[in-house]
Write a structure and sequence with these properties.
Strand order of the largest sheet: 1-2
Distance between the termini: 25 Å
Helix content: over 70%
Family: Belongs to the jagunal family.
Subcellular location: Endoplasmic reticulum membrane
Membrane topology: Multi-pass membrane protein
Radius of gyration: 25 Å
Keywords: Endoplasmic reticulum, Membrane, Transmembrane, Transmembrane helix
Largest sheet: 2 strands, antiparallel
Structural class: mainly alpha
Main location: endoplasmic reticulum
Length: 183
């Protein structure tokens, strides 16, 4: 090509290196998707910590029960939802497909399933609240069923996007793996 102050190769002006400066699209996508998944995992950790704090305050009776209600049954298995997030984070440094697949499967089992169960468990109480205006459990003056339904909706979206981006990341990793096998 061209050297500093030295002669140029014949037939080139020294600008034909640009195509080698680009990063392959699946590597760009991998970095972007990892970043998005990390943001979702950190959001999930915040939700998890809030639920954990509610459980600790409820069980240790740090505040009266009219301030913070006892946890619903679905919250206990949801505590295991931190494991898929950790598996997802462990899969990133070396693009470990196995950990990412385990993370996706366990997200369905430990995250989405308790959320679905929670929506069904709280439905009669939500129905009673909105039909008759009666709430028996409270979290800092708000109806516990309303607050927890909000948590369920946000958590379901976080986990849904996490699964979507994980699937796209998995596809990206498979693309790079297939290209390496072709070479």
């Amino acid at each position: 090509m061209a050297s500093r102050g030295g002669p140029r190769a014949t037939g080139t002006d020294g600008s034909d290196f640009q195509h080698r400066e680009r990063v392959a699209s699946h590597y760009q996508m991998s970095v972007t998707l990892k970043s998005e998944i990390k943001k979702l995992i950190y959001t999930h950790v915040c939700i998890w910590l809030l639920l954990m704090a509610q459980m600790c305050v409820g069980h240790l009776k740090l505040l009266p029960h009219d301030q913070v209600a006892m946890p619903y049954q679905w919250e206990y298995p949801y505590l295991l939802s931190i494991l898929p997030s950790l598996l997802g984070l462990l899969s990133f440094p070396r693009n470990n497909i196995s950990y990412l697949v385990l993370s996706m499967i366990s997200t369905g089992l430990f995250s989405m399933a308790p959320l679905i169960y929670g929506a069904m468990e709280m439905f009669p109480m939500a129905q009673q609240l909105y039909r008759h205006g009666k709430a028996y459990r409270f979290i800092f003056g708000f109806s516990a069923v309303s607050v927890m339904y909000l948590v369920v909706v946000v958590a379901a979206q976080v986990h849904g996007w996490q699964l979507y981006y994980s699937k796209k990341l998995l596809d990206s990793w498979f693309t790079s793996t297939q290209e390496k096998k072709k070479k």
